[in-house]
Amino acid sequence: MFSRVLPRHWPLWLQLGLPIALVVSMSVGLIAFLNFFNYQKSYRQLQLDRYLVLGKDVRQAIESGLNVGLDPAANTRLEGLLGQLRQESAGVQFMAVVDEAGKQLVATGTLPAGQDWAVTPASAPAQNDWQKQDDALYYLGLPYRNSFGVAIGSLVIGYPRSAIDNATTAMRLRLLRLWLLVSLAVFAVTPLAVWLLTRKMSRELDLAAHAIDHALDPDPPEIPQFKALGEELAQDIPQFIRSSRESARLITPAAPEQP
């Protein structure tokens, strides 16, 4: 009973339109996913470069004092310079000058406790600029050197994660919203476009299926012309129907004569 009520197959425009829309939606989602991570990486690097430029200026002032025998702790201009740069540079949580062992010499802001502020933390390359992070802050360390080129301390800059994380989160949500809107548009437009392109072909396929199903009926339907299926199918389908009828006629035993 249900076979008579339910359609034998999904419409062609759905069979083609939905997979095409799904592929397009997944492709757009993958592009948005990659764009987000590129944005996140670029934004973090941009912020790092901004603080790196700031730190290099301070390191140059520290090393200039060392060249004339002025230790950072005794450089009275250094604390004022750090305070001025912190006020002028948005997002700087603290700036601190530490010695080789990580002991604070000059600082503006509060240097967090419980961190390794040595010249070369275990996670950093030897005597190179290094980066660290915790739950609240990113840290940038710039070792400074004496006149012999030996690193004897570091300038440590701390800046909050929240500003960067909020910006990347906002971009992630924006890309997600755009992807959802694009996906809705794709699922709405693609099946309609496929229907417009395949409606004639779908109609002829249904006619061909009906003609084949009833090819061996006592009163078979007339074989239609198939213009949208292409020249080859337009010839093969009617030929198949005629061959089926001829074969059925040949193998069907003749009815016995009535006495």
Provide structural commentary.
The chain has 259 residues and is α+β, with helices and mostly antiparallel strands. It is built from five helices and five strands. It has helices at 2-5, 12-67, 76-88, 161-213, 231-251; strands at 94-99, 104-108, 130-133, 137-145, 151-160. It has a five-stranded antiparallel beta sheet. It is rod-shaped, with a radius of gyration of 39 Å.
Quick take:
Helix content is 57%, strand content 13%.
Highlighted features:
alpha+beta; 259 residues; five-stranded antiparallel sheet; 5 helices; 13% strand
- Give the strand order, joined by hyphens, for the main sheet: 2-1-5-4-3
Query: What distance lies between the first and last C-alpha atoms, to the nearest angstrom?
Result: 41 Å
How many helices? 5
- What is the molecular shape? rod-shaped
Order of helices and strands: HHHEEEEEHH
Quote the beta fraction. Answer: 5-15%
Question: Runs with pLDDT <50, length 5+?
Answer: 1-7
Q: Tell me the radius of gyration.
A: 39 Å
What share of the residues lie within helices? 55-70%
Mean pLDDT: 80
Would you count the extended β strands for me? 5
Largest β sheet strand count, sense and barrel closure: 5 strands, antiparallel
Structural class: alpha+beta
